[in-house]
């Protein structure tokens, strides 16, 4: 059976749900969800097998999120769906498909998946604790490098000449907020008098950030600042050190970082205790990398050439004339 046919067969179990969901959404005032009954009552029987309310709720977890949010409204259709699922499973067992090798392989894969999730959940449960998160947060605060941020307004225009004209108006006492509202082509900021809120240098393009952070509180740029967006006149309203995120704001990221570190360490420990062999994609053994050739020894220095022996004096037939004696 192809994957397409399997998907189609699985979809048949949902045919009653879309229509009922549509009926719920087209009602002018959707009815309030009925309160779930106490306990876990039997809601259906299939060939004597009892199906409880909890079975219906659990079966809905595999459905898309919109259906899961309407369990009470869709409950009658969900019961019918669960009945169909049970009938299909019972018919499969009647055909002894639980012993089919392909089915067994899929069951084993699903079992492995559940076991993997369970072992990690149990390992992490005690380690990604509130105490561990708080300790990591305090470590983050100690190691955090202070970051400055500014609150600025800007006026954006499409030419340098227009920007220079506006700077002249500002030098003459015109109100920055008023001009930004009327003349800036950054319509989103213009609606707030050019206010960009607080930002760090990394939040802005380099040219803009360099100009903004060079200004003192209350100053505006005396020359237009060109970026790929156009020409800016920037005014700094405030400067401050950026506050670190609160524990609750950082909690999600800390949990993620701790989880990654702990899982990595856990897997490294499991690998260190295991015997692992790897093969090439074609199943052949992986040849060990050839050891690096040892460095060739340095060539010994060539011995110095021996000095040439002194030439013997040339033989003469006449003895050398002695030097004149010193005069008295």
Strand content: 5-15%
Work out the radius of gyration: 42 Å
Number of beta strands: 6
Order of helices and strands: HHEEHHHHHEHHHEHEEH
The helix fraction, in percent, is: 40-55%
Looking at the chains present, what oligomeric state does this protein adopt?
Answer: single chain
User: What average pLDDT do the residues reach?
Assistant: 84
- Major sheet strand order: 4-3-6-5
Explain what this protein looks like in three dimensions.
Strand 1 and strand 2 form a beta hairpin. This protein is of the alpha+beta class and 328 residues long. Helices cover 45% and strands 12% of the residues. The strands form 2 sheets. The protein has a 4-stranded antiparallel beta sheet with strand order 4-3-6-5.
What structural keywords apply?
two-stranded antiparallel sheet; extended; alpha+beta; 6 strands
List the helices and strands and how they pair.
Layout: H1 3-11, H2 16-26, E1 42-46, E2 49-52, H3 53-59, H4 65-68, H5 75-94, H6 101-125, H7 130-143, E3 148-157, H8 160-171, H9 176-183, H10 187-190, E4 195-199, H11 206-214, E5 225-227, E6 230-241, H12 247-272
Helix pairs in contact: 3-5, 7-12
In short:
Helices cover 45% and strands 12% of the residues. With 328 residues, the protein is an alpha+beta fold. The chain is extended and about 90 Å long.
């Amino acid at each position: 059976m192809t994957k397409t046919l399997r998907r189609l067969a699985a979809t048949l179990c949902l045919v009653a749900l879309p229509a009922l969901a549509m009926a719920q959404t087209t009602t002018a005032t959707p009815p309030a969800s009925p309160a779930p009954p106490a306990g876990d009552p039997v809601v259906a029987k299939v060939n004597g097998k009892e199906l409880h309310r909890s079975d219906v709720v659990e079966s809905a977890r595999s459905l898309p999120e919109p259906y899961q949010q309407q369990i009470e409204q869709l409950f009658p259709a969900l019961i019918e769906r669960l009945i169909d699922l049970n009938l299909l499973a019972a018919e499969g067992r009647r055909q002894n498909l639980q012993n089919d090798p392909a089915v067994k392989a899929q069951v084993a894969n699903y079992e492995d998946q559940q076991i993997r999730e369970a072992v990690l959940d149990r390992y992490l449960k005690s380690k990604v604790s509130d105490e561990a998160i708080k300790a990591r947060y305090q470590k983050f605060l100690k190691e955090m490098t202070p970051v400055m941020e500014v609150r600025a307004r800007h006026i954006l225009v499409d030419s340098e000449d227009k920007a220079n004209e506006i700077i002249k108006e500002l030098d003459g006492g015109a109100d920055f907020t008023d001009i930004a509202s009327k003349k800036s082509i950054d319509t989103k900021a213009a609606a707030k008098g050019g206010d960009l809120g607080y930002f760090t240098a990394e939040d802005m393009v380099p040219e803009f950030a360099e100009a903004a952070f060079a200004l003192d509180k209350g100053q505006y740029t005396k020359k237009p600042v060109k970026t790929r967006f156009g020409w800016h006149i920037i005014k700094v309203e405030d400067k401050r050190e950026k506050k670190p995120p609160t524990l609750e704001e950082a909690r999600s990221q800390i949990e993620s970082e701790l989880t990654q570190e702990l899982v990595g360490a856990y897997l490294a420990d499991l690998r260190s205790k295991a015997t692992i062999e790897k093969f090439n994609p074609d199943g052949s053994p992986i040849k060990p990398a050839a050891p690096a050739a040892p460095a060739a020894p340095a060539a010994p220095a060539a011995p110095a050439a021996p000095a040439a022996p002194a030439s013997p004096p040339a033989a003469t037939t006449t003895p050398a004339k002695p030097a004149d004696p010193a005069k008295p």
